[in-house]
Amino acid sequence: MSPVVELERLTVRYGAKPVLRDVTAVLPAGAVGLLGPNGAGKSTLLKTLLGFVTPASGRVRVLGLDPVASPLIVRARLGYMPENDAHIPGMNAVSFVAYCGELCGLPRRDAMQRAHEVLQYVGLGEARYRTVETYSTGMKQRIKLAQALVHDPDLLFLDEPTNGMDPRGRDEMLDLIADVVRNKGLSVILSSHVLPDVERTCDHVVVLDQGAVAAQGPIASLKPGGRRVFELRIKAASAAAAEGFYAALDAAGATCLDTGDDVRRVLAPDSVDAAGLFGLASAHRVQVRHLRASVPTLEDAFAEAVGDHAPGPGASGTAG
Amino acid sequence: MPIHDQGYRRYRGRRLAAGGVWWVIARAQMAASLRQRRFWWLLLAAWLPFLVRAVQIYLSANFQQASFLAATAQTYRDFLGQQSLFVFLVTIALAGAIADDRRANALVLYLSKPLSRVEYVTGKLVALLVFLLGVTLAPALLLVLLQVIFSGTIAFVAANLFLLPAIVLFSVIEALVASLAILALSSLSKNRRFVSILYAGTVFFSGAMVRALRAMTGSSTWAVVSPADVLGVVGDAVFRSPRPPVVPVPLAAAAVVVLVGVALAVLERRIRAVEVVS
Question: Where are the beta strands (DSSP E) in chain B?
């Protein structure tokens, strides 16, 4: 299947400041996660793909088309769900979604019919005659998805689609995203802070860091396979002793990822097992207070790719 | 197997050709304005002068004693001058045309669809023009028609061939300047009240400033900075009014062009899907 987005040495500047630098990536059809710390250039990349921002140099192809030369043709085939709340003021949900359909060239009658169907699909069927201003945060997320879907795009850009949603709503949103990709044949580019969301819905990720691609590929291939993963907490008599221990781990080929609290994730080569860790700790007069074997996650891959900007464990990191 | 799937389905219907989206936006803007009852009252009030003029034309055409009320070309100029009050009020009522979209972060939704910034502005502009021409051009043309009907002859129109083009031209210029000015101001803020105050302030302040400067310097050329005065000069010129212009007509016309140009430049800068940070 042909890729949905192709970037070749893409550079985007705001004034003199480069925001994307020589980005080369191929995003295949299906669900692709877009990750990166704050300021990595994710939003700029989405804006460039939508044709809002003109690249300083390089080549961009979205669905085989150039969004700089033919932005309207490209946008006719895209659905965009922005990160921030956005709606047309004074309209109820069904009028709003139908209006968005008409803006995309659907005849009035078809747009209204599609609006009803899509609102039913995203779970707002019962609330479709309420004005959007009265919606809760979760409902606003759903209606943003509905307006992105109403004209039946080939490619969806979802910017933080689960922001502000409760756990149940988040699950439902992720199920919807998975459904449109797996059962309806749409492709999705998902930009999210929440790495488990990306891991759950996407097969492929692109990690941006400081305007450049830090890692890309199928999630399975990016996870640190063939390596042991431990959660480790130590107590040392001095900071120097702790630093010495971590330096020894580094020398042994292990990578220690700071998780934001006193527990670190250690990605160790096969040669370093639990006994080896205890041995190193003993040699550096460091107490091991917690040691647990873990499994490689997308967070590990992300943290390894972007180094110091890595997110903490669990729900939210610093991707942005 | 279900007989009907209420879930998401691919769309196989036709899509309209690009370029006509401005009308969708104009229609939505008009519908949004007409949903407000106060706006209906304002439009109705704007037609009261028409009723008065219609009675005047009827009396002058049918009663010899009222022949002194007979309409002339200047009558239409004065009528449109009176309607300027309603042009001002309707323009103020439409101050949220873009500000409301900015408040609701709707610009990014509009511009992520297959429509250009020009189509967006055109849609908003057309909606405003429809309402403003509805309180200037429409009643003025209807008055001409009534005059023909009541008098039973087209002699008046034939004797004033410039009148119909003058009504159309002045109404369009006035509506265009007011619409573009309020759209430009509306694009600067997310608060429609602030936009209303800014517009009213600009109109009143420029008028007051002109009067003060005229009193201090004795020169009437300062009127060129007042949109109302400038439009007055252009209107008098278009209607061949005997009133002497406060500023030369070419200068007034140039001021109108500058005003339109500034409004378009502001819109070009402000109507974007991404904020411009200088």
Answer: none
